[in-house]
Amino acid sequence: xxxxxxxxxxxxxxxxxxxxxxxxxxxxxxxxxxxxxxxxxxxxxxxxxxxxxxxxxxxxxxxxxxxxxxxxxxxxxxxxxxxxxxxxxxxxxxxxxxxxxxxxxxxxxxxxxxxxxxxxxxxxxxxxxxxxxxxxxxxxxxxxxxxxxxxxxxxxxxxxxxxxxxxxxxxxxxxxxxxxxxxxxxxxxxxxxxxxxxxxxxxxxxxxxxxxxxxxxxxxxxxxxxxxxxxxxxxxxxxxxxxxxxxxxxxxxxxxxxxxxxxxxxxxxxxxxxxxxxxxxxxxxxxxxxxxxxxxxxxxxxxxxxxxxxxxxxxxxxxxxxxxxxxxxxxxxxxxxxxxxxxxxxxxxxxxxxxxxxxxxxxxxxxxxxxxxxxxxxxxxxxxxxxxxxxxxxxxxxxxxxxxx
Length: 405
Fold this sequence. Notes:
The chain is globular, with a radius of gyration of 20 Å. It starts with 8 loop residues before the first strand and ends with a strand. It is an alpha+beta fold. Helices cover 47% and strands 15% of the residues. The strands form eight sheets. Strands 3-4-5 form a three-stranded antiparallel β-sheet.
């Protein structure tokens, strides 16, 4: 609020504000709002609400990334409406949803990566399963809250088009052409470009009770366990394979991959979750803080950045909830302590350029508020703060209420 009020992000080293596009979309206030509410931070919640309701305007000259804007802004606004009840939150969400819909106007129904908020102009027809398949909870919830079925139907079709194009061994690749439906990169993995596609199949089933998503999840989950898990002494890591043959193509693993333990625990596969979290914690402690990517077979660092990601703490939270084993509290405590020690500065928290040198980078993205801080809190909070029977957390950790199916 001192250095970046009205901007998307704070740059903690230069103490300046930063916008993603030409004009601010209030990324941090929207993403952070439900965290402030959950933590009982009434002053901060009121400040964020005031900014959103008085300044946020989607009629702007911005070409935006459909996926990031959906999970951060559309998701944040929908949760804000469910928590607060102010109809302006829902009106903003509907306006945004309508401006994103032109992206889906393709021969396959799978969306372009970018759409212009005013003109509907599109770019980037080479998309990926994560950016196509991680829209369902938000657009589906928009349908439930507005009574307009189109959002649910359009996005469900897009998601199932990815599923339809799985290989004979039930895996998907890294990149696909949304015009032709042709795979452009046939490497399969659990991390970037694919991760939350799998997550949303299971979570969309939990949220909406739609059996098509459960069916797709079950098919993929079997293939993931059969082909992607690499069992090492330090835990079960996830490798890269050819989507058609299952042949190993790489042994990179990193911060984004660490979400899979949380998803496995939530979906009831506790053994896989525990073994994968063992690998996640090994990665964190080997390098002081988890790197963006390392090679789990050689131990070599591939990318030493840490951008304040939440996935490892998220997995501690889910595993603690479903096993009640104190080891996950201790793991989470170590992670929280390390972030405070190495990332905090006098105005915020900074990403790290290298987890081995602790050199800071001038970035603090909105998901630090929406996810990292929320999971760090929830791991140690009373269970009544978040009831899995009543809510499903989106990939951005926005809690969506489960309504009548």
